[in-house]
Amino acid sequence: MDNLWNTSYNRSVATTKPGKLKQLYAQLPAGTPLSSADLADLGISADLAVHYARSGWLTRLARGVYCRPGDPLALYPSLNLLQRKIEGFHVGGKTALEWYGFRHYVLQRSTVYLYGWEDARLPSWFLSRFPGEYHRKRLFDEQPGKPLKVDHYESRDNAPLVSTPERALLELLSEVGVRQPLPEASEIIESTYAMRADALNELLMRCKSVKTVRLCVKLGHELNLPWVSKLDAKKLPTGSDRSWVSQSKDGLLVLKP
Questions:
Q1: What's the predicted TM-score (pTM) here?
Q2: Residue 56 pLDDT greater than 80, yes or no
Q3: Which residue, 214, 212, 213, 222, is CA-closest to 192?
Q4: How confident is the model at residue 178 (pLDDT cuts 50, 70, 90)?
């Protein structure tokens, strides 16, 4: 009886393979990883996905994650899959600034800096293909499901979520003294003369990091950037009248109110 059931099941699977996979491949942009939920939306159950993987019709990247055989993963669709799994997930900081052209040098294979609202780890299938770092960061007073000044890259619906240049600037500065050297941050910020002062002011007003607010204003003045004079400096949340002091490998950082 078991053999009869297995034979019947295999025949059923075999008959569903061409149609469903043909539909899948027709809808699937090159380099796109798929979760079990994505496959289920296309009528491919978890059991059927396992069968396809064992038969070589799908490649299993991890539990519940698949891709087309022989199809190298692309960065954008890989990021899109992760942002469906991690609340508030987006490209930010130095990477977002690089994407928008704010950089002082270009690495052939630079690290992708990613941020989100919750604790999470980047999966091995992603890290083995794309050098990346993920950090839980709650830098602004905002809703986790709708972070401020984050949108689809270049306003394309199928592009990953990315910080605007103004948010990315503050994300970068928030890392100074922790993971981000101050000299490099200063060199990057030196090219941000075209930043939108109104967007930057809105973000600064809702920024929960006194260090980040003070450092943004300080560097803006030191580098003589045009947006700094347009900020509502008296209303910015710069904290108490005391200096903010931090020791890092770059030396002592003193930020006055």
A1: 0.87
A2: yes
A3: 222
A4: confident
Q: Give me the chain's average pLDDT, please.
A: 87
Rg of the chain in Å (alpha carbons): 23
Please, what sign has the CA dihedral across residues 23, 27, 31, 37?
Answer: negative
pLDDT tens-digit profile of 229-248?
A: 999 988 999 877 776 666 56
Question: The sheet that has 112-116: what strands, in order across it?
Answer: 132-136, 112-116, 90-91, 161-163, 150-152
Query: Rounded to whole angstroms, how far apart are CA atoms 8 and 14?
Result: 10
Topology adopted by domain 2-67: Arc Repressor Mutant, subunit A (1.10.10)
Q: Which residues contact 102 (CB under 8 A, 6 or more apart)?
A: 165, 168, 169, 188, 191, 192
Q: How far apart are CA 243 and CA 222, in angstroms?
A: 17
Flag whether pLDDT at 47 surpasses 70. Answer: yes
Return residue ranges of the chain for CATH 1.10.10: 2-67
Q: How many CB atoms lie within 10 A of CB 182?
A: 17
